[in-house]
Amino acid sequence: MALRVRDDRRPSEPDPGHAGEGSPGDASVPASGGVPILASEQQGLHAVLVGDGDVPPRADLDAGWPGWDEGVALVVAADGGAPKARAAGLRLDLVVGDADSLDPGELAAIRASGIPLELAVPAKDESDLELAVLAAVARGAARLTILGALGGARFDHALANAWLLAHPALAGRSTVLLDAGTRVRLLDAATTPASATLAGRPGDLVSLFPLGPEATGIVTDGLAYPLRDEALRAGPARGLSNVRSGPEARVSLRSGRLLIVETHLPGDSP
Q1: Which of 149, 165, 180 is where one domain is finished?
Q2: Nearest by Cα to 161 from 200, 237, 87, 152
Q3: In what order do the strands lie in the sheet with 182-189?
Q4: Which of 228, 213, 61 shows the shortest CA–CA distance to 146?
Q5: Which of 77, 87, 98, 141 is most enclosed, with most CB atoms within 10 A?
Q6: Per-residue pLDDT reduced to its tens digit, 199-242
Q7: Is 250 inside a domain boundary?
Q8: In the prediction, which pLDDT does 270 show?
Q9: Of 121 and 195, the one with more pLDDT
Q10: CA-CA-CA-CA torsion sign (81, 83, 88, 92)
Q11: What is the spatial distance between Cα 58 and Cα 188, in angstroms, rounded to a whole number?
Q12: Which among 180, 209, 226 is the end of a domain?
């Protein structure tokens, strides 16, 4: 069933230099069962962003991450993510980007539907997904779930998308990259200690990677191989493939940044 996000569609194609202007409709999707990823993520406007990487079927997302779409009030596609958003049953509020991954028929269909389209020039400093992030933040998004950021033919794009989690515009906002088997988030203690609660399936893999030279004062709970006020440094793979021992784990960080990657093992059932 498609997400019904808003009904007040109107044609719009503003100046690309004002991609952050405007506001989404105020309708939102009611809770549809499942458990929220984090209790704190239920506060503020929830936006789903769709990039041009691999976007799994909606049923696979629902099975892998129950509650991932709770309270969605804004759906933004980055360029070639538009047809992938529709295929996943997401009703678009906005399409941004340089349109180099949209064929003329798709572009015409977006214009004809009245979905706002914010075009950028191809020669730009930002990726299309970065423009989608900035547009969502400008519209008040406090929680961002990003689909289509992983997979695809371009490893450099996937890496850049993971690096987007450290974008200054996302400071203080709950942001995850999501596909059917993977959830990626950033724990940022660059200025003050931070912690994250990781709810999910027992047996899932949880990998911790320092985003920067090192991350220090790491304490974990609910993982098979605990860290007790320890450091992870760039290069060694020590943080790879820990295991969630129960339905919830916790990671605390005193200083630095940690990229947290949760993975369902193939063949695991919800």
Answers
A1: 180
A2: 152
A3: 117-119, 94-97, 72-78, 45-50, 141-147, 174-178, 182-189, 256-263, 205-210, 242-243
A4: 61
A5: 77
A6: 999 999 999 999 999 999 999 999 999 999 999 999 999 999 99
A7: yes
A8: 54
A9: 195
A10: positive
A11: 30
A12: 180
Q: Are strands 228-233 and 214-221 parallel, antiparallel or unpaired?
A: antiparallel
Residue 247 in tokens: 């339905």
| Same domain for 218 and 106 | no
Identify whether the C-beta of residue 198 lies closer than 8 Å to the C-beta of residue 262. yes
As given in the structure block, the two tokens for residue 174 are 């709950």
Q: What are 143-177's pLDDT values in tens digits?
A: 999 999 998 788 999 999 999 999 999 999 999 99
- Does 116 lie in the same domain as 173? yes
Question: Over the range 111-141, which residues count as b (16 or more CB within 10 Å of their CB) and which as e?
Answer: eeeebbbbbbeeeeebbbbbbbbbbbbebeb
Give the pLDDT band (50/70/90) at residue 268.
low
- 248, amino acid identity: E
Tens-digit pLDDT profile for residues 90-109? 999 999 998 888 889 888 88
Asked if residue 187 is part of any domain, the answer here is yes
Domain that holds residue 255: 181-270
